[in-house]
Amino acid sequence: MDRLVAMHVFCRIVECGGFGKAADDLQLPRASVTLAIQQLEAHLKVQLLNRTTRRVRVTEDGAQYYQRCRQLLSDLDDLENHLGSGPRGTLRIGLPSTFGCYWIIPKLPDFYRRYPNLRLELGFNDRQVHLQREGVDCALRAGEVKDPMLAARPLVKVCQVTCASPGYLARHGVPSTPAGLIDGHQMVRFAASDGRDFPLEFRGLAQPVRLPGMLSVDSADAYVKAAQAGFGLIQVPRYNAGAALADGSLVPVLEGYPAPDWPMALVYPPHRQSSPRLRAFVDWAAQCLHQQAAETGLLIAL
After folding, report:
1. At what angle do helices 60-83 and 3-16 cross, to 10 degrees?
2. Residue 138: what are its φ and ψ, rounded to 5°?
3. Chain centroid to CA 19: how far?
């Protein structure tokens, strides 16, 4: 048994939550993954995983072993990068769908010119990615980072706009103040990863505004489309609504009460801060977004 391979297999089972998902992720036969864990447990003389027909749970010994394995594998990977000619290998990165497509993808040729030996695996999702469970090296998150188990590199703030469709405003009226929103207005509900809806927020107002809504979405693009279809008010990054604002299918409202700018940060496990691969991407992303902030005015550099 190759001990390092078995440790890597074990870590992916823990992170993926099952043998089958780990086997698919590692592109290995399910039987090979099962055998690697059996041999590893026999070598260690402890049970690392409790298996049932429905799920896999990590034992107490397995949880301790996972933490040490993850640290050891990360350190080994970083050591090889330090000794080589520049960062190399693969980085798995989670990005918000619209933000990543708009601001990151078009600039990636520059990243690959700088780091030709690095490979990026980008996952696009408008929910918060669980770094450990999903095997992600870092993720771009909107809003305040409150998780004490993650390090964060603030990058930019996103300028937001409150808007609605002309048809919606014809039916419900154009609000003149946030307080007037409670008189018959609705919002498109955007569901956060914990199931709660984001309220409408305005600078200078201590309390956010929560309105009823007939439609709930979990995609930034669907959020804009729902507002264009007349389902209610939204607060959205100005770049995401740019085309709709330009063609008149969305109209800004309450411009005297601007929405707060939305902070964006890259998050990653604290022990990975010295990783050459991770540091290369984080520094490049900061430089890339700061340059675009200066060029467009749609972002504010941090």
Report:
1. 120
2. -155, 160
3. 25
The burial of 31, by beta-carbon neighbours within 10 Å (0-12 exposed, 13-18 middle, 19 or more buried), is given as exposed
Q: Which two tokens stand for residue 179?
A: 């307080």
Phi, psi of 196 (to 5 degrees): -80, 155
pTM: 0.76
Provide the 3-class DSSP secondary structure of residue 223: helix
Would you state the structure tokens that stand for residue 181, as one six-digit string? 């929103």
- Decide: 5 and 60 in contact? Cβ < 8 Å: no
CB 25 within 8 A of CB 31: no
User: Which whole-number Å values give the CA distances from 291 to 99, 103, 288, 297, 298, in the listed order?
Assistant: 15, 11, 5, 10, 11
Domains and CATH numbers, the chain: 3-82 (1.10.10.10), 85-148+274-296 (3.40.190.10), 160-252 (3.40.190.10)
Tokens of 52: 């049932």
Residue 94 CA to residue 285 CA, distance in Å, equals 13
Over the chain (302 residues), what is each successive 10-residue block's mean pLDDT? 87 87 88 93 93 84 87 77 74 93 97 94 87 84 88 96 98 95 94 77 93 93 97 97 97 96 93 84 97 96 96
